[in-house]
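cron nightly-structures :: item 1 of 1
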Amino acid sequence: MRSHGKVFESEFFGHRRGAFTGALRDRPGRFHVADGGTIFLDEVGELPSTCSPNCCACCRTASTSQSARDVARKVDVRVIAATNLDLREEARARRFRQDLFYRLNVFPLELPLSEPGKMTSPAGSAFRRASVEAVRCSTLRLMKEDGDRLQRYDWPGNIRELQNVIERAVILSKAVASS
């Protein structure tokens, strides 16, 4: 059985046929697939420590390899990473690899997603438009009381929770309109 770190490594950097039980064919990793584009590492603070050295090496050398026997392959990938942890503090406490932190910390954006009212207007509007289009609902109007309630809510699930609430409202409004 493979460890979580090996699963991440296989996902990020790919693997060769026969590298482990169940590896029936060569498989490119996400960094290879993203070559020439962008890769989004969600919850990078939860990255297993066994995978951190390879991620750091990839960021440092702009190359990856699927196994120790492989010649490194150059990749041109923009890395965007997100986390709900304070990575500076995690790196300081040595719970997150410091050199990886400094490689990822090129252009940090801190978003106060859990503060009431901070994200509902622009993000909510974008999610509403996308949801309305996806379910082919012609309009969705938000009553003032509902907007005020959205502004006051703490959003412990952050942007994902807001997106789900908006999508649910669009689906329910279409169901009500069609009955």
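cron nightly-structures :: done
The chain has a mean pLDDT of 74.
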